[in-house]
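If your schedule permits, I should be very grateful for your opinion on a structural question. I have a record of one protein: its chain in single-letter code and its fold written as discrete structure tokens. Would you kindly read the sequence against the tokens and tell me how you understand this chain to fold? Thank you for your consideration; the sequence and its tokens are set out here.


***
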Amino acid sequence: MTSRGKQVQRMQGFALSQVRLLDSDFATAAAVNRRYLHSLPVDRLAHSFRLQAGRLSHAEPLGGWESPDCELRGHFSGGHYLSAAALAYASDGDALLKGRADALVTELAACQQPNGYLSAFPESFFDRLSNGQKVWAPFYTIHKIQAGLLDMYRHTGNQQALKVATGIGDWVVHWLNGFSDAQMTHILETEFGGINDSMYELYAITGNGRYLDAAHRFDQASLYDPLAAHRDELKGLHSNTQIPKIIGAARRYELTGEPRYRRIAEFFWETVSENRTYATGGSSNDEFWKTGPGDLKGQLGLYAAECCVAYNLLKLTRHVYTWNGDPRAFDYYERTLYNARLGTQDGDGMKLYYYPLQAGANKFYNSPFKSFWCCTGTGAEEFARFNENIYFHEEQDLYVNLFIPSELRWPEQQLTLLQETTFPREQQTRFLLRLVEPVTMALNLRIPAWIGPDAALRLNGKTLDVFASPGSYLTLRREWHDGDRIELELPMALHSEPLPGDETLHAVRYGPLVLAARLGSKGITHEMQYADMRAAPKPEPKPQSAPQIATNAPGKLDWVVPANTPLTFIARTSHGEVPMAPLNQIRGERYAVYWQAESAIASDA
């Protein structure tokens, strides 16, 4: 498998097969996700593709966004599913799941038209797109299908998948040739997902310049030009429509070295991660950025923080990090991973669409066979790749960015690194090095921005008189020997974080974890927790005020005290004590993430 690029990346990741998750919340969540993927029969996934190709199918149709009358059909069944299965195979060696995905690729290949077109909806959808008629994002779905096939090739070696993806690429090239740049401007007004990204990836694999040129035609000047000039003009835009386009820009930079595309991607990441995110790291409200940068007042909605947004921001963060190696990128990554991703799945593998931030809301999930929202698909991918970004290397030097129990195998260094921890339940992590022979290298441990006092490092039981500033790396350069052990103390402290644009509302973090008020499960029904076609609970919970704190200085956090079990706290409010727990642990009950000082309410009155 070849890949082209300008080698602009300073940091290199490891193959998914080189990192195995050990027992942890992440490993458990990944296993639950795999069980859900196993529950989806291949014949049902292929049903709409077979019908579109004029082939017989007696399978029961899937529902929701995969139903035979939904214009987005095929995005999960022929796209996200393949990506998630490929990632799960690479991450955990799930051969049975790979076999099912291989069978689905064979089905899709049989449904592909001679001109390369492949979808679960007719080609006429693209006539509607070019004629300015209303149609639900056909290129978005084509992107998911092509990306799924490319993931099957890259992560499992499926050659048929590459052949089918190449056929799709040929069809895209031919379709684009019929339109001028002015016509493309209008076509790009309809959501097109990350089709530029998947076409760039096809070019990276094949070296065929036609795919590079075709991807370039999806440059959207109205989005790219302000970002290239370091202007945030994102207000009013549908959030998740934009992020895959930026990931495509990042991929172009990596393949061509054109600095404009790095400026676009880096500034977008900076302005969104710094100015448009909640304490959880998530972003958007009702799927849009409704306000200017640095102003989220009034944006704590029932449909805040669409999960696809957090997923794609994490993908973009990885790109940006590899260019500069800045550990602060992983302060954002870690915050978002723990607070906007880990808590978005239930015990059966169902996923959230939104991560509600309205006080008194509860989490609501898809159903097994009748939803298939966009976030069902990105969630299935996310929970299959939790091992992807724990470790990086810069030539022979190793970087540890996340404190997740795992085993890294690095044959070039003849090194196996074992990370053992129950973080964040315990405030330390431990590393054991297994080496065939001694090796000289630097081991770089990320020291998080949230770290509290009394942090320490021990090497082979001896405390070292060195440390590093929060938000940087602690570098240990030495000759390492088999059996060397490192212990990194990671003391966590409480932090207060105001809502951007509204200093009266504060969230509370403990280390990287957002703590939420536990408001009980009274009145919550199954219909309020699970949805079919709808991406909303029924009935919707009534809006309520944020919990009130009896203090004039909520940022001092003297109103938060530890409870009896790890990671739990008690909030002293105007109406008594309220239990607090990490947001990612709360399920089946109402919660609130932001708190309001009682004095602020009085002054507003």
Remarks:
- The radius of gyration is 24 Å.
- The CA atoms of residues 112 and 118 lie 5 Å apart.
- The longest strand covers residues 439-447.
